[in-house]
Amino acid sequence: MSRPGRPGGLLVPRMRRVDVAVALLLGLLGFAAVVQVRTTQEEGPLAAARQEDLVQIIDDLDNRDARLRAEVAALEQTRQELTSGTGRTSAALEEARRRTQLLGVLAGTVPATGPGIRLTMTDPDGILGPDVLLSALQELRAAGAEAVQVEGRAGEGTRDVQVRVVASTSFVAGDEGGIAVDGERLLPPYRFVVIGDPATLVSALRIPGGVVDVVEQLGGRAIVDRSSAVEVGALRRLEPPRYARPTP
User: Fold this and answer.
1) pLDDT digits over 96-134, tens only?
2) In the chain, where are the structural domains located?
3) Angle formed at CA 104 by CA 98 and CA 109, multiple of 5 degrees
4) pLDDT, tens digit, for every residue of 189-207?
5) Which CATH class is domain 49-236?
6) Chain centroid to CA 37: how far?
């Protein structure tokens, strides 16, 4: 038999206050999540950038893409020359010579010359730290820098100190001011002498939030000069390996 007030024996659910509160809370949480996602998407790092800044960033990315594609094409051509039967010996010898010269430039044991830039950073208040120079070096390397040396004053009335930058180069705050580059204490102004494509290097340094902006925000000044002939003449002494020995 059916109970009075419940026709057909069906149970009619009743909304309790706690159910209403839970439903309302879930709705508010969902609304807040949607608002947060939309806010994050609209307030990204490039949302407030000017149109010319965005164009500059895109140009920098296009230049890096073109450089990488050119490197891939050159490596493919070298592989074909080395694997083909015609002129295999001469191609291998030429490639070995080229790699020897390239490794010498990367290791800092031979001088290098070519087109590039000079980046001079002034520091009148002594605020620029080693992190700024390291960031500048990373930007230059990412933009295709092939050879780099860092210059700075050794002291009042003394000539500039030149340090060749290699893979193991370190930047440390000096005990009495300045920055120690591989143990050599340099005083401002600091100068990067870089060989690479000038347009790509300049574009990388001047992107919004890049090296030029950071130096100026800290009270210094970053001056970039292009040149068709830059000389990186500082050399590194090649240390003999401690453990490795060549095989017979």
Assistant:
1) 777 777 788 888 889 999 999 999 999 998 899 999 999
2) 49-236
3) 155
4) 999 999 999 999 999 999 8
5) alpha beta
6) 29
